[in-house]
Design a protein that fits this description.
This protein is mainly alpha-helical and about 1000 residues long. It is built from 43 helices and ten strands. Strands 1, 2, 3, 4 and 5 form a five-stranded mixed sheet that branches. Helix 34 links the parallel strand 7 and strand 8.
Length: about 1000
């Protein structure tokens, strides 16, 4: 066999470099067969060969081991091929090559923690038997000695890890030994720090101060990675000293630990010692007495801090003080599930599974993201916190032991627990092997083919001669990630269903109390009610019940992600009961994850959508295809209304169908909005089209009713005003309108006026009056004609000539301002054109008198002082408050009155279009215009979100945290970022108000 073929068979990636290193003088005379047999064991034979040549150069005696039998040389080849970093360490410190002269064991034993501690302490000249060891070495020499001894411990562990017959089985021991090794390093660092502190403080005082180092996170749980920050909390004991002096010395000791572990020195640092989980985080003191810790946890700690304590374990320093800390915090951990804020903390835990993942890393993450390590840890820790208060057997720090305890206690099914444990171990093994190669903190799957090929070999046990392809590795990883997601849902929710459905099952089944505890932990406020809904959905032997039992673990999880999972589950039950065994519904839930997830999120985040879907459950079918959610245009709606009216001549039947169409289209728009298919501008236009079709339909029905008693004597026009006229409405908007009519030939003005009055009264009543049977969940369209000439004191409808006479003789500037948003909505097209011809000179005057400008300003000030509801916070009122909708709209309308006569670009009923035109014309600074548009859009979005969330209109930025959270999510903010919405609105509205006052009032 040629050398190139031998290199390929051995797994080399770079054949040219492989040939060059094999020809190195350091390998002259070595048995090639034995050399290749050893290199074939290496995950990366390229790396193993290069490190071997460099090591022999420094330490020629290693040649005998390179050519020895595999039972002698296996540890060396496996370590050099799996860790370039450990090879570099041994090149720096060839005195530790003796670590390879051991026989590999297929079932290795973990190192004794006491022996590791003694070794590390002795490396810095400290006595392991001393109560408070003090190093004889300090400074750079001590740091180098400590770090060298630690890395020698890593080599010893890597030999055992890489030679173990079953890497998955040995994995918990690896995590435990890494944690013990880290604890030993911190113990040695503390001994060095004591010696260094004695140079700055009295040696007796330093000796009097006790310091316990509490391991947190993976170190506390004894499941540490090869390279990871070590999370710690420091507890100080003042001894006979004053607390202040003891804290000063304790802080020096803690700082010295970090210096010894990670400061820049000739032997590289090990890892970061991270104390940010301490009370008050980075803002708090580095060390505290035990009493200070207890006071903090009793008075100020947040829920997440108790959950972090789940992993707390004394790892170094004063053992008695550390045990006292453990004893003090243990009751707090297991009572945290009953604390206020626990649910919010759990939701934050969930978000940490997926948040802050850079887009470039999303597909490579082993730790974060769906199906990653944190997903497993979230599930296990949450189940421990929920059930551990009553069941002490669950109080385990490490993940694998916790999974076993949950299974033994019946909280997880046996098969699911085994699969979950195996998936966790596999993901951790991937993480270990990736980090071991360069001893670099990373959780990303490599991307190069050589790295993937090496990793695929590294995760196999020593008895496998395979060299799997990169594709097979990636496929196995993706299968594991999918399995973790499915297992999370099965593990958490399947026992609930077994309990609710009263199934005879060998799998996990919870007591009612335990089942309710799980639901409460995820945010269900009425867990008893939730269990009733689950029971109703899953009980029985029908196909529907069987499918719901299959689907609900996933659906309950999606519902729990919403702001109101209880309401979402109730709505889901009602929709499911309404659709019964409809084949398409069950198929949609089963076959379309996107549609099912979309349904759950809508039901638990929107009372409006939930209410509408409960009475229109057939609309769920739209969720399967985005094209079904696109708004239906005005023309299409009008053609449908015409067709309905032609088949239903009875006015009440016709109006029922018209109003049902409007209800249907509002639901379609809301769902499309929820799915992110529409922006705020499109929502306003779509809702306006829906209202227009309904009003036109009502007008035709009203004309039909009146004409049944005699001929039509007039034509009527409905003119949209305000935001309706600008096609900028929200879900809770009324229809501001004016009514215009013109007598038909042969009829007097009086006859026409009387009939027009009856028609417009009928239009309003047709759209609002209760029908029998009632149209459930309808958002009735209220017609508001207060903007007509003379306001509430004026005639409800006027002839075109009467409008002309009124505007010629008595019109006020505020009425011209109101006409800026007038737009024909329904009625005779010729009359509409003539009306616009009449009002255009009024709303777009050539000039505006200064006194009219002052009048507009006076009215605006009066509106602010008189119309703002009593007790309302001006900063939070979306319409009339500072920088709200009114400010932006009045400013834009003033600019239109002043300049639209000369600039046709300003002749629009849309606030945003007019704002953009004003900026392009130089009437408004572009930055100011952009700020005003942002404020207007955000206020509009929040108003719509208020309706979507609660089903009720509100002009206030919510102050309730729960309401604000729901509104924030609808406005596009990530879960848990309600405060960001509040801050953004208050900031942008404050800045918009400053622009308004400067431009509108000239301040």
């Amino acid at each position: 066999m040629s050398l190139a073929r031998r290199l390929i068979a051995a797994g080399f990636s770079d054949l040219e470099k492989g040939e060059r290193f094999l020809a190195a003088r350091e390998l002259e005379g070595l048995d090639q067969d034995r050399l290749f047999a050893g290199l074939q064991l290496a995950a990366s034979p390229d790396t193993a060969l290069q490190s071997l040549v460099r090591l022999i150069e420094k330490h020629p005696q290693l040649r005998d081991l390179a050519a020895a039998d595999l039972e002698d040389s296996e540890p060396m080849y496996r370590v050099l091929g799996a860790s370039e970093a450990l090879g570099e360490f041994l090149i720096r410190h060839p005195e530790h090559l003796e670590a390879f002269r051991v026989r590999a064991s297929p079932e290795p034993l973990p190192a004794d923690p006491d022996r590791l501690r003694a070794t590390l302490l002795q490396s810095v000249g400290a006595d392991p038997r001393a109560a408070r060891p003090v190093a004889s070495a300090t400074g750079a020499d001590a740091y180098a000695a400590l770090r060298t001894a630690y890395r020698r411990g890593l080599v010893d562990l890597a030999v055992k890890d890489l030679c173990a017959a079953d890497p998955l089985d040995f994995l918990p021991s690896v995590g435990g030994e890494l944690a013990d090794l880290a604890a030993a390093a911190i113990e040695a660092a503390l001994a060095v720090s004591r010696a260094e502190a004695a140079e700055q403080h009295s040696a007796a005082d330093v000796a009097d101060v006790g310091l316990a180092v509490i391991g947190m996170g993976k170190c506390g749980a004894r499941e540490l990675n090869y390279i990871s920050d070590v999370d710690v909390i420091y507890v100080v004991d003042a001894g006979s000293l004053e607390d202040a002096q003891a804290n000063t010395i304790g802080t020096a000791l803690a700082s010295g630990i970090s210096r010894a572990i990670s400061s820049v020195a000739r032997e590289p640092g090990l890892w970061e010692v991270d104390a940010n989980l301490r009370p008050e985080g980075k803002s708090g003191p580095l060390v505290r007495t035990l009493a200070s810790h207890e006071t903090y946890y009793a008075r100020w700690a947040e829920s997440w801090e108790f959950q972090a304590l789940l992993k707390a374990r004394s790892i170094a320093g004063d053992a008695a003080l550390g045990r006292a800390y453990e004893d003090a915090v243990a009751p707090l951990i297991w009572s945290s599930a009953g604390r206020e804020g626990f649910v919010e903390s759990v939701q934050a835990m969930r978000r940490r599974v997926t948040e802050h993942i850079p887009a470039a890393e999303e597909q490579r993450q082993i730790k974060l993201g769906r199906g990653g390590l944190r997903d497993v840890e979230f599930t296990v820790q949450l189940l421990q916190l929920v059930h551990g208060k009553a069941d002490e057997s669950l109080r385990r720090r490490d993940t694998t032991s916790a999974i076993a305890a949950l299974s033994a206690g019946g909280y997880i099914g046996r098969s699911d627990a085994a699969a979950f444990d195996n998936a966790y171990r596999y993901l951790r093994l991937l993480e270990h092997r990736i980090q071991l190669f360069q001893l670099r903190r990373t959780h990303l799957m490599p991307v190069t083919e050589p790295a993937l090929r090496s990793l695929a070999k590294a995760v196999l046990g020593p008895f496998s001669n395979e060299r799997p392809s990169p594709d097979s590795l990636l496929s196995a990883w993706q299968r594991t990630k999918r399995s973790v997601r499915e297992l999370h849902e099965r593990i958490f929710y399947r026992p609930l269903l077994n309990t609710a459905a009263k199934l005879s099952s060998e799998d996990a089944r919870l007591t009612p109390e335990a089942a309710q505890g799980r639901l409460a932990a995820l945010g269900y406020r009425d867990p008893k009610g939730a269990m009733r809904h689950i029971e109703a959905l899953t009980a029985g032997v029908s196909r529907r019940a069987a499918l719901q039992r299959q689907l609900l673990p996933v659906l309950l999880d999606w519902l729990a992600e919403g702001v109101d999972p209880d309401a979402g589950l109730l709505a889901f039950r009602r929709v499911s009961e309404a659709l019964g065994t409809t084949h398409w519904y069950l198929g949609l839930l089963r076959d379309s994850n996107a549609a099912a997830e979309r349904l759950c999120h809508m039901l638990s985040n929107s009372r409006l959508i939930a209410d509408l879907l409960e009475v229109s459950p057939e609309s769920v079918a739209w969720l399967g295809q985005d094209k079904d959610l696109l708004p239906v245009g005005f023309e299409a709606q009008w053609q449908e209304i015409i067709a309905k009216m032609s088949r239903h001549e009875d006015p009440e039947s016709a109006m029922r169908l018209i109003r049902l169409i409007r209800r249907r289209e509002i639901l379609r728009i809301a769902i499309a909005d929820s799915a992110g298919l529409l922006d705020q501008d499109h929502v306003g236009r779509a809702l306006a089209d829906t209202d227009r079709a309904a009003v036109l339909g009502a007008l035709r029905v009203a004309e039909g009713i009146v004409s049944a008693a005699g001929p039509l004597k007039t034509t009527v026009l409905v003119v949209a005003m305000g935001r309706q006229g600008g096609r900028e409405i929200g879900y809770g908007s009324d229809a501001d309108v004016m009514y215009v009519h013109r007598a038909l030939p042969g009829f007097t003005e009086a006859e026409a006026q009387e009939q027009a009055g009856r028609i417009v009264a009928k239009v309003s009543s047709l759209l609002t009056q209760p029908l029998k049977p009632a149209i459930m969940a309808e958002r009735v369209l209220q017609m508001d004609a207060d903007l007509r000439p003379e306001g509430k004191n004026g005639a409800m409808v006027r002839s075109l000539d009467s409008f002309a006479e009124y505007y010629r003789r008595w019109s006020l500037i505020w009425e011209a301002q109101a006409l800026l948003r007038a737009r024909p909505m329904a009625g005779d097209d010729t009359l509409a054109a003539d009306f616009l011809k009449l009002i255009d000179p009024i709303r777009y005057p050539e000039t505006v008198a200064e006194q009219d400008v002052r009048e507009i300003r006076r009215i605006k000030a009066r509106v602010e002082s008189e119309r703002l509801p009593r007790g309302a916070d001006p900063a939070r009122h979306l319409k009339l408050g500072r920088g709200g909708l009114s400010d932006v709209e009045w400013l834009v309308q003033l600019l239109q009155l002043q300049h639209a006569g000369k600039h046709r670009e300003l002749r629009t009923t849309s606030t945003l279009e007019a704002l953009e035109a004003a900026a392009e014309l130089g009437l408004l600074d572009a930055a100011d215009a952009g700020l005003l548009a942002d404020a207007w859009r955000l206020a509009s979005r929040i108003r719509s979100a208020n309706v979507i969330w609660s089903g009720k209109a509100s002009d206030l930025l919510p102050s309730s945290r729960r309401d604000l959270e729901a509104v924030a999510r609808w406005c596009g903010y990530e879960p848990g970022h309600a405060a960001a919405l509040e801050e953004d609105y208050l900031r942008v509205s404050r800045r918009a108000r400053a622009v308004f006052e400067r431009v509108f009032y000239g301040h």
